[in-house]
Amino acid sequence: MSDLTVIPKLVVDGADRALDFYRRALGAEPGVRYAGPGGRVVYAEFRVGASTLSIKDADEHDPAAGALFTLEVADPDAVGAALEQAGATVVFPIDDQSYGMRQGRLRDPFGIQWIVSRQTEDLSADEVQQRLDAEPG
C-alpha cells in the first residue's frame, strides 16, 4: 500500500473563515474550492507545509467535529504565537516536556486542536516510558 495517501477532511461551521484562519496562522495555501447552494463550502483543499487537508461546512450529513493534529515544526513557540495571534486559545502551554519534546496544544476558533511540537532529545521508547512513569499522577 505504498501508493496510499491520507487526506484529512475537517468539518467545521464556517469553512471560509477557517481557511482564512489557517492562511493567517499557518501560512496555508488554498487550493480548489467548491460551493453548493447558498455558497456553503462542500469541498476545499489547502496545503500546510507538505501536507494537504480538505475542509467543508458542516451540514445535516456531516456535523462539525473536532480533530487533533500535530505540527512538527522548527520553532513551536513562534507557530504557537501565530496561532494565538490569529485567534486560537491555549489548551496546554508550550513547554519542554519530560519525553523529549518542546510541545503545547492550542484550539482554533473552529474546535480543531493543534499540537505544536519539536523534538529536543533523542530518547528510546523505553526512556520515554520511564520518564512518563516517573511523573506524578
From TrEMBL:
Residues 1-119 form the VOC domain. This is Glyoxalase. The lineage of its organism: Bacteria, Bacillati, Actinomycetota, Actinomycetes, Jiangellales. It comes from the Bacteria. Pfam families: Glyoxalase. InterPro entries: Glyas_Bleomycin-R_OHBP_Dase, Glyas_Fos-R_dOase_dom, VOC_core.
